[in-house]
Write a structure and sequence with these properties.
Elements lengths: L2 E5 L3 H12 L3 E6 L5 H10 L2 E4 L4 H5 L3 E4 L8 H9 L2 E3 L1 H7 L4 E6 L4 H14 L4 E5 L5 H7 L4 E5 L2 H4 L9 E4 L14 H9 L10 E5 L3 H8 L6 E5 L8 E5 L2 E5 L4 E5 L8 H16 L4 H10 L8 E6 L2 E5 L6 H10 L4 E5 L12 H7 E7 L4 H7 L5 E5 L2 H11 L5 E4 L12 H13 L2
Parallel strand pairs: 1-2, 1-4, 2-3, 4-5, 6-8, 6-9, 7-8, 9-10, 10-11, 16-20, 17-18, 17-20, 18-19
Antiparallel strand pairs: 12-13, 13-14, 15-16
Helix pairs in contact: 1-2, 1-7, 5-7, 6-11, 6-12, 16-17
Length: 444
């Protein structure tokens, strides 16, 4: 019986334990932190042994396979010991893919991957395909494989999840864009982050597809230096390729080998240039799977907005409150500020991931009347924006931030939560941050 060791008792760890047990592995889960009571109960019910607040190195090094949760960085001692010992370390998506016969659509990128993943899943489901959704969204891929039997899976995949793939190769891969993010994890080296994203296509074969954003110069340059065997299909406003997707006159145009499909977006519920790029990617996937034009058009109209991404919460005394808590990097916040149609009180801050705020300066100068810093350490934000914004306030709770924003915003103005940072200094995650924002607004 092969020994499977799982490092980390979060969503991916729990899912891998469930799947590993089902597939007959001798499973042991080890977490240097604490494991939730829910996960412990699940592991006990399966008969899977576990430990918390320590790593039993001898037992871990005896593994045939180690699944390392994506949140564990390479510099951790146990990972270095496993590397030195030559033990196979796999990501959860790699492990799950080995035990699934489903066709996989893998979607990665610095921004837009959640919306694109949800939209692709919606298009496929509405067309009648037996499709599941997993990865960096909802339940882990491993748990879905253990408990469901879908013919297709749409997977949102982060760079951390791609770092430990070995043979993983989706039938269709999508890269929405690549902008600086998580540089703290990649030694402040953007090129390492770019390489991580491109791993989604590294094992693809000639009969598989890579869809990529033709408007992204970083991505274009990286692909020119890559060696993927996949068929490359571009999408974007500036796409002049004889194949792929482009946009003009409120229509998405998909050019294929033997046909051209036009999809009207006049009633598409998602606003903004970035969401039309997401739609181009999703429609391209749907057409590769032979979903009809009529089905695609109807499904685009019925798609609902993603929570915590440019979500209109309420209008109070003619002040509009917008929740963009999912904007955890500079590029996502750029899209948010660009979409503001009036003067804005901007709530920003959290754990900085190596951000360069300079790209935001023109938009902030034009649209932001006041900045409310919401983080434990706001020094970098204050240094970056104090030359262009006169009014900057530091706060330590969402309630305080929202009350201050309400005082500072005038009628017909906007209050925007778009942090450009991770949430873990004051919140459990970006969902908790967004939910606290919405609660604080309703309590005004």
């Amino acid at each position: 019986m092969k020994k499977l060791v799982i490092l980390g008792g979060g969503e991916s760890g729990k899912g891998t334990a469930i799947l590993g047990h089902k597939m007959g592995y001798d499973v042991f889960l080890s977490d240097a932190g604490t494991i939730s009571s829910e996960v412990k109960s699940k592991l006990d019910a399966l008969g899977v042994s576990w430990e918390e607040k320590l790593h039993s190195i001898d037992r871990i090094l005896a593994a045939d396979i180690v699944m390392k949760s994506p949140g564990i960085p390479e510099h951790v001692a146990v990972v270095k010991q496993l590397r030195a010992a030559g033990v196979s370390i796999q990501s959860e998506i790699e492990f799950a893919a080995q035990h699934s016969k489903a066709k996989l659509i893998g979607i990665t990128g610095s921004n837009g991957k959640t919306t694109t993943t949800l939209l692709v899943h919606h298009l496929l489901k509405e067309a009648g395909l037996n499709v599941g959704i997993a990865g960096n969204i909802g339940e882990s891929f491993a748990q879905k494989v253990a408990e469901k039997n879908h013919a297709y899976y749409v997977l949102e995949i982060s760079s951390f999840q791609l770092d430990d793939i070995q043979n993983f190769a989706p039938e269709i891969a999508v890269i929405t864009n690549i902008t600086p993010d998580h540089l703290d994890r990649y030694n402040d080296d953007f090129s390492l982050y770019v390489k991580s994203k491109l791993r989604i296509a590294s094992n693809q074969r000639y009969n598989q597809f890579l869809l990529f954003n033709a408007d992204d110069p970083v991505l274009i340059e990286a692909l020119q230096a890559s060696s993927t065997a996949a068929q490359k299909i571009p999408f974007g406003y500036t796409n002049t390729s004889p194949l792929g997707a482009s946009y003009a006159n409120e229509e998405i145009k998909i050019i294929e080998q033997k046909s051209t499909t036009m999809i009207s977006t006049t009633q598409f519920p998602l606003q903004g240039r970035h969401n039309l790029l997401n739609a181009m990617a999703a429609v391209s996937v749907a057409r590769l799977l032979d979903i009809s034009k009529d089905s695609i058009r109807e499904s685009l109209l019925s798609f609902t907005k993603v929570e915590h991404r440019l979500e209109n919460v309420l209008k109070i005394q003619n002040r509009t409150y917008i929740n963009d808590s999912k904007a955890t990097n500079v590029n996502a916040t750029f899209y948010a500020l660009e979409s503001m149609e009036g003067q804005t009180v901007w709530i920003v801050g959290g754990i900085d991931k190596g951000n360069d705020y300079s790209a935001l300066l023109p938009l902030v100068r034009e649209k932001v009347k006041a900045i409310i810093c919401l983080g434990v350490d706001n020094e970098k934000i204050i240094d970056a924006f104090s030359p262009v914004v006169d009014l900057m306030v530091e706060t330590q709770s969402m309630t305080e931030a929202v009350k201050m924003a309400h005082k500072l915003a005038d009628k017909k103005e906007y209050v925007l939560l778009s942090p450009a940072c991770a949430s873990f200094d004051l919140f459990d995650n970006y969902e908790d941050r967004g939910n606290q924002f919405k609660t604080a607004i309703r309590e005004l």
